[in-house]
């Protein structure tokens, strides 16, 4: 994470893929890196994959898909959160492929997913589209797999101490190495 916090991957137009079950900190890390990138003058866009698909679907009515993709791709770092929670139809699969293909070697992507790569074939409309997305996304990528219990569930299931605070280890740790912690505060 210290190497990623230098943002060399953004300068080199590489991608970062964060994999793991819900609640292990994928989005937290992606947001922390995004905030650090903004503080260094990079243009950053954060979207859930569902929001991306909805925004691109809305362009069907007026034929402005190419312009919308161009606007998205004007950012140095594009963070796509929550890939894998909803199966994509042919149109959504095509949109995501177009974005990844156009960003390839030109822009940096951070993608978070709860699915292992071998499961992506069932997420996209066709396994061929999943393979094409993975081919481009992973060619120049850093892949980090996070494991563990959900921070959200851990803090909900842990009984509070007598003084009302949570037991040690039940709150999510802040992003270190020059990143940002909870609420965007420097750590």
From TrEMBL:
Residues 157-187 are annotated as: Disordered. InterPro entries: AAA+_ATPase, IstB, IstB_ATP-bd, P-loop_NTPase. Gene3D superfamilies: P-loop containing nucleotide triphosphate hydrolases. Coiled coil: none annotated. Residues 178-187 have a biased composition (Gly residues). SMART domains: AAA. SUPFAM superfamilies: P-loop containing nucleoside triphosphate hydrolases (SSF52540). Residues 12-145 form the AAA+ ATPase domain. It holds the Pfam family IstB_IS21. Belongs to the IS21/IS1162 putative ATP-binding protein family. This is IS21-like element helper ATPase IstB. It comes from Geochorda subterranea. The gene is istB.
